[in-house]
């Protein structure tokens, strides 16, 4: 179920930021927190929405194997060029790709919410089918409380290296979606947007239950104060821009 906007948007986003496989402090800190939240050896890992494989490369020494899935061919080629021997990068859509293995750990960072509730349930069911009996998945969920506050805010995602790239946040109240629109300053008429459903903790718990998954942990991420234009790494579960759920099969 590749969305009609996803491939063009993520390809543009990747090219605009021109990161091309480099590892950042953000990924280093993310890897550390993920290992703490899993709370046991990673074992065999499946990462969904793996970008160009940078997180997998950081985790490679802590995992037996890592299989990454990414929609954008350009990113998959970068991942293959930089992969460790125990990493297998795959190109495909989460809803169509055929994966016969099961995994100890599944990771889906910063991307859940493409499509409608039925699509999220289908993906959660697929995640459950890829988990082994004792496996757990960590999934980032966008928090509606934060994104309602972000409605109408504009900024440069990387003002130092790419001041020409601008983004604006909007909130679709009818469909409970955050809308993230990007453009270049010299081409304001050429915009691309991503649309991600937002869920309260109660809503995602219900959705996971319907998909045969138990939520066994909630981990809040940071939050942006749009009055002070300051980001904080520490935020409550109610105020964070996204939170991470830890799930296992019923």
TrEMBL record:
One of its GO terms (molecular function) is methyltransferase activity. This is Class I SAM-dependent methyltransferase. GO terms for biological process: methylation. It comes from Salinicoccus cyprini. Residues 45-135 form the Methyltransferase domain. Keywords: Methyltransferase, Transferase. CDD domains: AdoMet_MTases (cd02440). InterPro entries: Methyltransf_25 (IPR041698), SAM-dependent_MTases_sf (IPR029063). The lineage of its organism: Bacteria, Bacillati, Bacillota, Bacilli, Bacillales.
